[in-house]
Design goal:
Elements lengths: L10 E7 L4 E6 L4 E5 H6 L4 H4 L17 E7 L3 E6 L8 E2 H9 L1 H15 L24
Antiparallel strand pairs: 1-2, 2-3, 4-5, 5-6
């Protein structure tokens, strides 16, 4: 079985390019895709990203600089990337990877449009300065 559907092509090679942050995937049907780490993180098949139903998706922001620290095989049907932001719950089956590669350009444009509509950014958000905490009260009444 290739992925979760018998007709899905099976990867013949998966290469991690750390410098360019690209995962290169070649399939047994001749298809070859280059998927950025950011793209893979944004389109993680995990419930954390996709939610548990329609309309529960969570827009991923600030993922431009994300890295993949390592990739773990899951049986003979998927991989589990461990991302530098701590995300590690997405299982990318062969059919999911092939689908992401086949629809990369339109998925990416839809994502960029959603970011724009939300006024959000691909760049990691900088934490705003927090106001100083008030001095602790020692319980003495004056």
């Amino acid at each position: 079985m290739a992925g979760l559907r018998p007709e899905t092509p099976t990867p013949t090679e998966i290469k991690q390019h750390q410098k360019s942050r690209v995962l290169e995937i070649s399939f047994d049907n001749g298809d070859r895709f280059e998927l950025s780490y950011e793209f893979l993180r944004v389109f993680s098949p995990s419930a954390e990203v996709r939610g548990h139903g329609i309309g529960e998706e969570k827009l991923q922001i600030g993922k431009r600089d994300v890295d993949i620290l390592r990739i773990e095989p899951v049986g003979n049907y998927a991989i589990r990337p461990v991302f530098s932001d701590g995300h590690d719950s997405g299982l990318y089956s062969w059919d999911i990877l092939h689908g992401l590669g086949s629809h990369r350009d339109e998925l990416w444009q839809a994502y960029l449009d959603k970011l724009k509509d939300a006024g959000a950014s691909r760049d990691p958000a900088e934490c705003p300065e927090l106001p100083p905490a008030p001095a602790p009260s020692c319980g003495i009444k004056r």
